[in-house]
Amino acid sequence: MAEQEQAQKQLAVTKIYLKDCSFESPQSPAVFKKGEWNPQTNLNLRSAHSALDDTSHEIVLTITVEAKEDDKTLFLVELQQAGIFEISGYDGEELAAVVGSFCPNILFPYARESIASMIQKGGFPEFILQPINFDALYLQAKQQQQQQGDGATAEAH
After folding, report:
1. 11-27, pLDDT tens digit by residue?
2. What 8-state DSSP symbol labels residue 98?
3. Can you give the CATH number for the domain in which 66 is found?
4. CA–CA distance from 95 to each of 11, 73, 136 (Å)?
């Protein structure tokens, strides 16, 4: 029985593509005249899922990287790395975990390379986006949703 269940589950990458991207360097060329390079870097990421049909799903990983110094933005990168995944045999919590953790994890290396390339082509030093534990982020988001749901239930009583 378990073997039949495993055989029915399928997950395949159909297409990986860059959906949207932008690079801004509002302080150039003055930023390149400064001697020392020590900005504060902020990273924001999120993923979105939309079902295209019964088995096709688009997952979009959105990453924003901003480098600031003295409240001035040195560069800002916004990128949407997307993929179409064929997913079948997964329901409920399993499907949520696949689209919330597994698929963004597949897209991340593509996004990381694109971001690093844009920053370097913008004239800035090499930027290495560290690996991200999407499993932990997914579990954290799930716990937050449960806590918010528990809070709403408590308020209703």
Report:
1. 999 999 999 999 999 99
2. I
3. 3.10.420.10
4. 10, 39, 16
Contacts 24+ apart (CB under 8 A), 63-68: 63/111, 63/115, 63/129, 65/41, 65/115, 65/119, 65/127, 65/129, 66/41, 66/42, 67/39, 67/40, 67/41, 67/42, 67/124, 68/39, 68/40, 68/41, 68/42
Count of structural domains within the chain: 1
Alpha helices in the chain (DSSP H): 2-8, 92-97, 103-121, 134-156
Q: Give the C-alpha distances (Å, rounded to integers) separating 135 from 4, 12, 86, 99.
A: 26, 19, 20, 11
Q: What is the CA radius of gyration of the chain?
A: 20
- Tell me the C-alpha distance between 6 and 142, whole Å: 25
Asked if residue 143 belongs to a domain, the reply is: no
Environment class of 138 (CB within 10 Å of its CB; exposed 0-12, middle 13-18, buried 19+) = buried
Is the pTM here over 0.90, yes or no? no
Q: Taking the chain, what is the end-to-end CA distance rounded to the nearest angstrom? A: 43
Q: Is residue 137 situated within a structural domain?
A: no
Peptide bond into 29 cis (omega under 30): yes
